[in-house]
Amino acid sequence: MDNSFDFLISPNILKPKRFSPKLRIAILASGEGSNFQELIYLSKSNKLDIDIKILISNRPEAGCILKAKKSNICFKIIKNSDYEKKESFENEIINTIKKTDVELIVMAGWMKIMSSKFVNEFKNKIINIHPSLLPSFKGNNAINEAMSCCSKITGCSVHFVEPEVDSGRLIMQAALSITNEDNLETLSKKIHFLEHKILPLSISQAGFMLRNDLKDND
Ligand code: GAR
Question: Which CATH number characterizes residue 80's domain?
Answer without folding.
Answer: 3.40.50.170
